[in-house]
Predict the structure.
Amino acid sequence: MIVGLDAGTTVIKAVAFDDDGVPVARAAERARLDRAGPGRYEQDADEVFAAASAVLERLPGPFEAIGVTGQGDGVWLSDGSGRPVRPAVSWLDARAGDILARWESDGILEALFRRTGSLLFPGAAAPVLAALAEQEPHVLEAAATAGYCKDMVVQRLTGLRATDPSDASVPFLDPRTGDYADDLLDLCGLREYRRLLAPIRRPPMAPRSDGTLVVAAPYDLPASAWGGGVTEVGDGLLILGTTLACQVLTDAVETTGEPCGLTLATWEDGRWLRAMPAMVGAAALDWVLALVGAGVADLPGLLAASPAGASGVSALPFFAEAGERAPFVEPAARARLDGLHVGAGKADVVRAVAEGIAYAARHCLSAAGLTGELVVCGGGAASRPWLQIFADVLGRPLRALPGEEVGARGAALAAGRAVGRPALPAPAGVVVEPGPDSGRYADGYERYLRAVSHARDWWREPKA
């Protein structure tokens, strides 16, 4: 069997697939995310690796190969053996917000975007490294690698110190040459730390102690696109997870227009993923459900109890402490509810946030250049009423994939390619068509865009 291991932010799962690509065994462990202070989010790399090892051990072997994917961005500092020299800084972290603001005012962010097609955000590796260089230079001196989650797991399993083109994409990869560019390190003032960048391999792979081949697959965003069957230019993937991840396959590196989003290298020459990994997502909906004394099981009833348009209540759903990173970067972005009145109920508040998240997805996918089929996956895709809102807001059919194994499937496909397995067909999924509320949501989307534009001016004003 081929195994896909997905080291996510809050759940680490392993899935074994048979020769036909059918999942035949699964194991999962929760992962702990620590809030180390205001806007500071970290993880214990030893705990993450222990959980990854545990889920692999719980699957029946033998395995032909193991593909490893996982959360991207952030900084996982390790020594020469892959063991942590400090807790990993998560992609959710906001400690580099002030550095990012300086880089924006100095024109560094735009210069980086014009070279790479990627706009940095507080949890990206470059600003996190710059923050650590200012605040904890001793840990950078003690480290051998400033890497990523999946690469840490692979190194601990096999001893291989390497990364793949997708994780290397942001922020130091020249997308045209496929290698690190020293001028990008210079722009960030980080040339002295180039030694911390792991070599790029296509693909990175090595055997573990029992001889099983371990492959560092693309990280979770491109792995999910691969696992979801996004193969044609213009096709897109929407992951309804803790955050939204919106991606569109493209054959060009776009560096014009307003800087936004990420450009991620794939394993195919001349193909990139234009990614808009928004911070808004199911976590925002979970927070609002808890606020009104409800849970996920109550969501279908609450959505049914409020009409399209949420009785005039609307939301900007930017609840993340680190603000927003796609399709714009605003570290000070904050959520807002408008149109509240005594006739509004908790169902209207919940529906307004659910609609606001769908508007954010349309904003991201429009910026990414979606023209073809849209695949939807992730935990949020299990809610058919919420999927209907997405189909109505987007005004297009969705191919919804069951379960939360798309990233693990992409990792398994990467491992299968490494051992010469033939490509497998994409899972069929269920098609959700837009309904009669699409016209109303088209008007609502225009109002949403105007509200975001106004809010961005407000977020940037100095606060007393």
